Amino acid sequence: MTEPTLKDRVEELIRENKVLLFMKGTPEAPQCGFSMRVVNVLESYGVEYGALDVLPALQPLREVTAEISDWQTFPQLYVNGELVGGADIVEEMDESGELAGLLGVEQPERPAASAKQELQADDPQQSPPMQIER
Amino acid sequence: MAISLDEVRLMIEASLPGAEVEVVDETGTQDHLRATVTAAQFEGLSRIEQHKLVKNAVQTRFDDGSIHALSIKTSVPG
User: Which residue of A has its CA nearest to B35?
Assistant: First the structure.
């Protein structure tokens, strides 16, 4: 039996997660401003999402996503198996309400930076970041 | 290796004839850029497809590292 390729594994992740984020770093510790922006948007919706840190295999993952989606920069947000986009697109869709529709949730209200009492800080809604073995 | 804003603008304009293109430097280091592009060619395309057209115009500069990050904002002429 042949070993699954990186591309097979990536396609599997995209299939198995309704919302999947390829990012630099982790949701707890994003390693780039763009990735952090997408994480912040997703967190504000309270939806469950998978997150993959691309840094351990950056160039191979660029090649895989270039083949799958014709897109090679990260972060990349996939919803229902399709590439939505990077930070710019996610933020635009968040502002327009399209992202709420796509995720199937209500448009979140934007609390002021200080008023975090309503958010459950100890209960992150996402799955733990996945590691891909090479 | 930094890149000139004019060069980026010209690359996008060459790839999307007739488009209105503005390129600004977000951090002063000439490698985090923001391109705002209005083009009739975007009509009917999804956001990601529009962004791809802009990205493809400057892909060689991503590949050689002169552009580290590019924010893109697209729109269709109103």
Answer: A88
Q: Could you tell me if the ipTM is greater than 0.95?
A: no
Q: Is A93 on the interface with B (CB under 8 A)?
A: yes
Total number of domains constituting chain B: 1
Q: Taking a C-beta distance cutoff of 8 angstroms, is the pair A106, A31 a contact?
A: no
B18: domain CATH number is 3.30.300.90
pTM of the model: 0.82
Q: Name the residue type at position A78.
A: Y
List, for residues A10-57, the tens digit of each pLDDT value.
999 999 999 999 999 999 999 999 999 999 999 999 999 999 999 999
| Three-class DSSP category at A61 | helix
Q: Look at the domain A6-103 and name its fold.
A: Glutaredoxin (3.40.30)
pLDDT tens digits, one per residue of B25-44: 988 887 789 999 999 999 99
Among the partner residues A34, A85, A93, nearest to B51 by beta-carbon distance? A85
Closest Cβ–Cβ partner in A72, A73, A85 for B47: A85
> Could you give the dihedral angle defined by the CA atoms of residues B26, A69, A35 and A52, in that order, rounded to the nearest 10 degrees?
-160
Residue numbers in B near A71 (CB within 8 A): 48, 52, 55
